[in-house]
Design a protein that fits this description.
alpha+beta, five-stranded mixed β-sheet, 8 helices, 31% helix
Length: 329
Amino acid sequence: MLSPQLDAASVTALVEDAVTAPSMHNAQPWAFRYRPGTYTIELHGDPERAMTHSDPDGRALHLGCAAALFNLRVSAAKAGWEPVTELLPSPEDPWHLANVELREPTRPDDDLAALHPALRQRHTSRFPFTDEKIPTPVLDGLQAAALLEGAKLLLPDAWHTEVVLGLVHDSEHYEAEDPAVREETASWTDPGGENDGPRREGIPAYAFGPRQYGSSAPVRDFGSWRPHLGRESARFERHPRIAILGTFQDTPMDWLRAGQAMQRVLLQATLDGLVTSMTSQPLEWPELRWAVRDPTSAMGHVHIIIRLGYGPQGPATPRRPVREVLEIK
C-alpha cells in the first residue's frame, strides 16, 4: 500500500471533515494549526467564541472542539493515517486542547474509518420523531461507542426520563428570566430573512424546526423570543427516547473525552439510521445539572442530553471556511 501524503491540500481536506462537528449554538469554537514537516495537527479552542453566560467554565466549548477532534481522527483513518492523539499537551496553554500526530498505521483502524460516511450525513434534527422503538442491539452499540472514548452513555428509564424532561422545561424558565442569557442566545441565532444565506456560524431560522404543541420533547426553541413568520407548529413524540452522556470526573480532560464520545455516538447513530438532537439547557444551570444524573449510577457528571429516534434528518447548518480556522506555517 502506498504511503499517504501530507501536504497543505491533504491537511485542508482533513480539517474540512473535522469542522462538520456540532458545537453549542454552532459557534464553531476551534482553530487548527499545522507546521509542515511535523506531521502533527494542533487543535486549539477559541475563547472569543465562548458562551460567557451559558458556559462560563468552557465545558460546552471543550465538547464542541472534542467533537471536531474526533472527526479529524475519523478523516485521518479514512485517508490511511493512524491518528495518535495527545490531550492537553501544553500545561501553560489551557486553550491548546490536543495534538494529533499522523503516522503510517501498522494496522488500519477500519472501525474508525467506517464512520467517515456519517460525517456529512449527520445533522441535528429539531423536528418531530416517530414513536418507532429503537432496537436494543442498536442502543447497546451506542453505549459501547461511548465506552470506547472513555465516557458512559446512560439510557434512563421512564421515571428518570420524565425527571430529565422536567428539568429541561425548568431550564427554559430559568433562561426566560435571565436577560443576559437570552441576549447571548439571540446573538447566535437568526430570526429569518436576508441573513440566512451568507451566515457562516450560528443557527439560522431554517434549522429551528417547528414549534411544539405542548412541551414533550427536549428540543431547544431558538425562536421563542424572536418570532419567525411562517414557522409552523407540530406535535412531537409523546415519549422521547433520550440518552445521557457523562463521565466520572468533571475536568477539562473529561470534557474532551466526553466530546469525542458524543461525536462517536452521533456518527454511529447516523449510520444506524437514527436521527438525533442534543440539548444542554439544564446542564447550564448548576442548581439543575446535579439533578440530571442518575443517583444510582457511578457516572457523576452529565455533559450532554441526546435525543434519539427515527424521523426527518435536519438541514445542514453553515460552516466557516477552512481558511478561517486552519493556519499552516
